[in-house]
Amino acid sequence: MSAFSFKGFNANAYLALRPTYNRALIEWLLGYHVGKRARAADIACGPGTFTVDLSSEFDHVLGVDPSLSMIESARNNAHANGIANIEYKQGFGESLPIATDTVDLLTVMQGAHWFKFANFLTEVQRVLRPGGTLVLVGYGYPEITNWPESMEGRGFARTLAMDRRLLGNYWDNGYTLIDELYAPFLDTIRASTRYVDVQHLQFPKSGQAANPHGINVLPESWIDSRTMTLGGFRAYVKTWSAYKSWKDKHPHDADIIDTFFDEQQGTLGKSSSDEVKIEWPHFAIVARKRL
Length: 291
Prior knowledge:
Strand content: 15-25%
GO molecular function, one term: trans-aconitate 3-methyltransferase activity
Oligomer: single chain
Organism: Coemansia aciculifera
Shape: globular
Enzyme class: transferase
Domain Methyltransferase type: 42-136
InterPro entries: Diverse_substrate_MTase, Methyltransf_11, SAM-dependent_MTases_sf
Number of helices: 11
Order of helices and strands: HHEHEHEEHEEHHHEEEHHHEE
């Protein structure tokens, strides 16, 4: 279970600051999906970022998340946007609050690495209709793409995340699967023999994970790049689960992210008002349940 499941996490900040998915993703999935569009389920839905995207393509969408604060934020967001065909429930990936054989498409956006995956896959097999689609999407550490190479913008966030003197010791164990582009999940899905047309995708091309089955590079990004100030980027990093875990263990210490950003901005001659362009490398596994 991730830090998002516990009290004290700001779900509204997560909704405002986390990356968003674009139309290229929806169109690719609809081209891959061959079943009905009666019901979709978005698991580990958080504040409903992608759940809302699905609502325009499916008759009914269910969002499931273990965090009540995420569910509340998602419901408020749907209500504010006048979306009536979304239902949200509290629940876990390993015991989905969904009836058997009722889901046409099931998505997990940046959440599958928190699950006990074998148990989750058993639940997917139960709730997906024959021919239904499973979609797992994840994204890596954000990269600053408008800084000169000498400033190491592409490694800025990774340093904060991975350095054990910073946040490196505060990630849940499942987060290592992000660096592996979910490759162990691919092996588990293929080994089950219950799925066909299993594909492993990424954008942009990288050499992060060894994959004997091959990985396809998407022609375009599925996640919107974003321009924000360094101050906004600092606020985004504070939505990381590792930061929440660090704060829980160091409630009286100087803020580790503020200290890091202040030091880096001083070294690089940057201010909190300077703009940065952020991109998120991402990847996916898609599969179709056998008829």
